[in-house]
Amino acid sequence: MVRSVVIVISLSVAVLIYLNLLNAGLALFAGLATALVLRHSYSGFCRKVSAQLLKLSIVGLGFGLNLQGLWQTTQDTFLITFISIAVAIATGVVVFKLMKIHHQTGLLITSGTAICGGSAIAAVSQAIKSHPDRTAMAVTVVFLLNIVALYTFPYIGHWLDLTQYQFGIWAALAIHDTSSVVGAASQYGDASLQIATATKLARTLWIIPVTLLASVWFNGHKSRLNLPVFIVFFVLASAANSAIPSFAPVFQQISEIAKFFLIFALYLLGLGITPQVIKQVDSKPLIMGAILWLVLAVVSLALVIYL
């Protein structure tokens, strides 16, 4: 019975998204409300499908971006990206030591906040051979804070009267996971979405040095590095857009379809947040994650406005 209701609601949400009646925030809320009311047992499946659908959507968005513009955005934002990541890592190390949080949990939350949420946590957890429970805790903390960011950032951006460019960079630097970055930016505007996507994926590349440093710190040797493959395909899609201008209408259509699936992926993300998931969160890691995130949000916003 529960399964049938979930399927009917999901199909209804898909139709509403197609009709442009649900944005990213409302889709996520619809998934969250459904999960909390029905208390279904498919949270793991929903989160897994959401993660894969998100990656495909990001690749699709690449067809709507010009490679030259992508490279220019990466160059323009390199300095503030580096500074924000350095501040996040330094602050995270200090906070988890002061709060006496286990070093593995603290480092995973720090990495997820500084780089790209779940992807960074997954890569670093392999490098430091983290206990599965600590990895799950870090992912859940970052996951919950992502949801807060998805709703609050667009309102703060409008309140501060940030431009599309400023908001896109700020969202890319201050929000953990790619899904929430593109979700928040899509609510702010198409230009913001393009800038945020390019900047966020450039930030994601910092997984490589951060994972290497974590491996050396814990193990004293290099560990296997995991660069998300979807980033490579995103760049290739952008390169195709630049190299074959005659296909521009087709590429634009692919990009629009990707936006649909992106919002549906956020619905599935919310659908994966059951009461059981929320109960797994310990207060100290959650407080640490919130402190670290607020510091990163304030510092990155100052960098965007004044640097």
TrEMBL record:
Pfam families (UniProt xref): Cons_hypoth698
GO CC terms in record: plasma membrane
Keyword Mitochondrion attached: no
Transmembrane parts of this sequence: 6-32, 53-71, 77-99, 106-124, 136-156, 168-189, 201-218, 230-251, 257-274, 286-306
Locations listed in the record: Cell membrane
Lineage of producing organism: Bacteria, Pseudomonadati, Pseudomonadota, Gammaproteobacteria, Oceanospirillales
Record's keyword terms, sorted: Cell membrane, Membrane, Transmembrane, Transmembrane helix
Family according to the record: Belongs to the UPF0324 family.
Native source species: Pleionea mediterranea
Superkingdom as given in the UniProt entry: Bacteria
Main location: membrane
Full protein name: Putative integral membrane protein (TIGR00698 family)
Membrane protein topology class: Multi-pass membrane protein
PANTHER family reported in the protein's UniProt record: INNER MEMBRANE PROTEIN YEIH-RELATED (PTHR30106), UPF0324 MEMBRANE PROTEIN FN0533 (PTHR30106:SF1)
UniProt xrefs under InterPro entries: UPF0324_pro (IPR018383)
